[in-house]
Amino acid sequence: MASSSSLSFNLFMVALVLAISIRSTLAVFRPSPWKLAHATFYGDETASQTMGGACGYGNLFTNGYGTDTVALSSTLFNNGYACGACFQIKCVQSKACYANVPFTTVTATNLCPPNWSQDSNAGGWCNPPRVHFDMAKPAFMKIAWWKAGIIPVQYRRVPCVKKGGVRFSLQGNGYWLLVYVMNVGGGGDVYSMAVKGSKTGWITMSHNWGASYQAFASLGGQSLSFRITSYTTRETLTLWNVLPSNWRVGLTYNSNFNFH
Ligand SMILES: *[C@@H]1O[C@H](CO)[C@@H](O)[C@H](O)[C@H]1NC(C)=O
């Protein structure tokens, strides 16, 4: 009797510890409160001017971002750490707002740089410390009449809903691996990253620009695994053998896992 009750107590403790550790690794990102800001748009209806932005996502159509994208003022951009973050934006307090549209959802793919030759309240909309959204024109046109030019908005950070796993686009050379991290779900953003070759230990990568991370190491001919930590939730994903040993720069590789 005594041994069976201590066994069930032990099983209970194991289950409890497992439940706590699973809970702590599955940090769920919840929407932030709505705040006030302003929005403008850039480019035209084709959104071709939004390609190749300051996050390094390249062609936004082939990489899954489409035209639901936004350039952030540097106050929000956070030196590229906000790349991939998702926002709901709604037009408020303006005759230009479409009354029947509650909000639209966009992913940060670019920086709206300051222009100090324009006043912060008359054209220099992205000058610090302004919180400003320069939306791709098709995204702006979902919430307001585009001829308004600038509109007051409410915005909030929301979890990014992405199809499929995190994607890795490779650049660099034999001694330097530069990885663009794309299609990130959940917080959408990346805090830190590490790479492991099949013949190496984990190598910490450093932030280069936008959503790219680099390792100064010779990793050719090895299958590569990545460990990525979300900026918003600090949750870490370990993606084993995402790249086969014959990986090449210039290619993009999909993993099977994502943040939520
Ligand atoms: C900054 O504003 C000035 C004045 O309107 C304009 O001529 C210039 O093209 C702007 N610079 C950039 C980089 O947009």
UniProtKB/TrEMBL annotation:
A biological-process GO annotation: plant-type cell wall organization
GO CC, one annotated term: extracellular region
The keyword Nucleus appears for this protein: no
Source organism superkingdom: Eukaryota
Domain Expansin-like CBD stretches: 175-255
InterPro entries: Expan_Lol_pI, Expansin, Expansin/allergen_DPBB_dom, Expansin_CBD, Expansin_CBD_sf, RlpA-like_DPBB, RlpA-like_sf
Position of the signal peptide: 1-27
Membrane topology according to the record: Peripheral membrane protein
Keyword terms, alphabetized: Cell wall, Cell wall biogenesis/degradation, Membrane, Secreted, Signal
Major localization listed first in the record, in broad terms: secreted
Subcellular location field: Secreted, Cell wall; Membrane
Expansin-like EG45 domain sequence ranges: 52-165
Any Pfam family matching the protein: Expansin_C
Gene3D superfamilies tied to this protein: Expansin, cellulose-binding-like domain (2.60.40.760), RlpA-like domain (2.40.40.10)
Function, in words: Causes loosening and extension of plant cell walls by disrupting non-covalent bonding between cellulose microfibrils and matrix glucans. No enzymatic activity has been found.
Family per record: Belongs to the expansin family. Expansin A subfamily.
The protein, known as: Expansin
Gene of this entry: LOC103482689
